[in-house]
Amino acid sequence: MLNQKQLEQIRNLGIDEEMINSQVKIFKDGFNYANLSKPATLGDGIIKASDKDIEKWTKIYDEFAVNSRIEKFVPASGAATRMFKTFYKYIENDGSKDEVENILKNIKKFAFYDLLNTSFTKDGKNIQNADNKEILNKIINKNGLNYGNFPKGLICFHKYGNDARTALEEHVVEGLLYAISKGSLKLHFSISPEYENIFKNEFKTLIDKYEKLQKAKIEINYSFQKKSTDTIAVDMNNNPVIDENGLLVFRPGGHGALLENLNEIDADVIFIKNIDNVVPDYLKPLTVRYKKTLAGLLLHIKQQITDTLAYLEWHDSYTEKKRHEIGSFMETYLGIKVPDGIDNTIYAGYIKSKIDKPIRICGIVKNAGEPGGGPFWVINRKGELSLQIIESSQVDPSNKKQQEILKSATHFNPVDLVCYTKDYTGHKFNLLKYRDPYSGFITEKTYNGQKIKAQELPGLWNGGMSHWITLFVEVPLETFNPVKTIEDLLRKEHQPKD
After folding, report:
1. Which DSSP string do the residues of 234-279 spell out, in sequence order?
2. Domain limit, last residue, from 149, 166, 192
3. Same domain, yes or no, for 75 and 99?
4. d(CA 297, CA 57)
5. What is the CATH number of the domain that holds 28?
6. Are residues 134 and 156 in the same domain?
7. Do 97 and 235 belong to one domain?
8. Mapping DSSP to helix (H, G, I), strand (E, B) and coil, where does residue 448 land?
9. Of 38, 60, 94, 408, which residue is 20 to 30 A from 82 by alpha carbon distance?
10. Do 233 and 23 touch, CB atoms closer than 8 A?
11. pLDDT tens digits, residue range 312-343?
């Protein structure tokens, strides 16, 4: 039972007591593990676009983009602390000397080197005479670049002559290549409140710069992860953790909480891509080619669904030929097999229940050993098969057969999504109705030196989109170049062209 003080606390957060009780119950019972049937593979859940397909779908998208509202959504909330984990460990005398020396040996290859050098000069020092720890401190701490406390989006990733671009700026440049509609580029970033001012300043700088260069209007909006999506923390006995003021302890709900932010975007097509997956200009054409391909396929599927639902609305009976057409489309593209012999009185309702949903087209790359989710055929609680992106933590570690299926995945999810979130009449779906609330994660954390348990909401592209229509399309591995550690910026994909 919550006391009056705690009830007032959750009201202020926009959380009700029923939600608290539900979260505590999940801590006790655990989330449901995914029931994997098999990995999605080429020809069985994953589409391999031919050159003809690419040409066709790109044309569809280009024609659509002229007079439609397109928006690019980029989760950019996180600090870059984990990028510099090697630095922190080394400074605390707990890290690998070899890793740090490789970074310092190549220090001039980083796009932020000129800023770093200037930081030393301002202090009347010479970077050439600095020791290892002094250089690392200059990169991550407030007396220098302060990158350890910056959001990843504001770190310089790429060098262009005497200029350098942050990950954020690269998203603007990339967006200008495929996401302009009605002469305007619309971008939406989810950010953390503590970085609001620095992001706003950067947004203004980029808008001023690229509106002059590209002669296109640029609109950049942002939002915060809502406090109402925070989840309660419990002790190891599943009792709510109480702080020194007698208040409940909450933790952020993970990237699944961003479903609320996505739900508020009103656009015809929404591109979603992680903040750290960008490349220099000379590698962008391939990314642009496949972004348009995915979007064109999305629009092709959406048109088929619209035509089908409109037909069902205006007809009371359906010919065998039309049933066959609808069934063939659903099985070929959506992986949905329509049972034979459905009575005319319930046929339209059945089809609508399967296809009148948000749609996502997911670019998938060949598995190259990166950690993260993959595409699978999954059996839901009704015994139905659907395509889902599944993380390893969603699979029962004690179930040998399930683990074998997990390890047999041929492809990986690089978070390369194009979404349609309106129904066939043009009204927005409430995306919160299409998630699976029983597919989140429970992790162990510490609070005031004690072990606690934290709960993450269903991941944005995992359980958060569980009941969407999903198609997987293989995209080239070259389009996936994430920066998870500082060393990743030394990869050839993030270096200037030779």
Report:
1. B-TTSPBPB-TTSPBPEE---GGGGHHHHHT---SEEEEE-TT---
2. 149
3. no
4. 5
5. 3.90.550.10
6. no
7. no
8. coil
9. 408
10. no
11. 999 888 888 999 999 999 998 888 889 888 88
pLDDT in tens, 196-253: 999 999 999 999 999 998 888 999 999 999 999 999 999 999 999 999 999 999 998 8
CA distances from 68 to 27, 178, 292, 345, 418 (A): 44, 13, 14, 36, 15
**What one-letter code names the amino acid at 72?**
K
Q: Which domain holds residue 177?
A: 4-79+152-494
Whether 80 shows a pLDDT value over 90: the answer reads: no
| Residue 70 and residue 114 in one domain | no
Whether 242 and 458 have beta carbons less than 8 Å apart is answered as: no
- How many Å apart are CA 331 and CA 476, to the nearest integer? 26
Do 167 and 28 fall within a single domain? yes
Among residues 491, 452, 439, 498, the alpha carbon closest in space to that of 34 is found at 439
Q: Which of 97, 119, 149 is the last residue of a domain?
A: 149
Q: What angle do CA 467, 473, 474 make, to 5 degrees?
A: 140
Q: How many domains does the chain have?
A: 2
CA 36 to CA 38: how far, in whole Å?
6
Burial of residue 113 (number of CB atoms within 10 Å: 0-12, 13-18, 19+): middle
Q: What is the DSSP letter of 226?
A: -
**231 and 297 belong to one structural domain:** yes
| One domain for residues 296 and 362 | yes
Q: Note whether 235 and 322 are same-domain residues.
A: yes
What gap in Å lies between CA 436 and CA 259, rounded to an integer?
Answer: 12
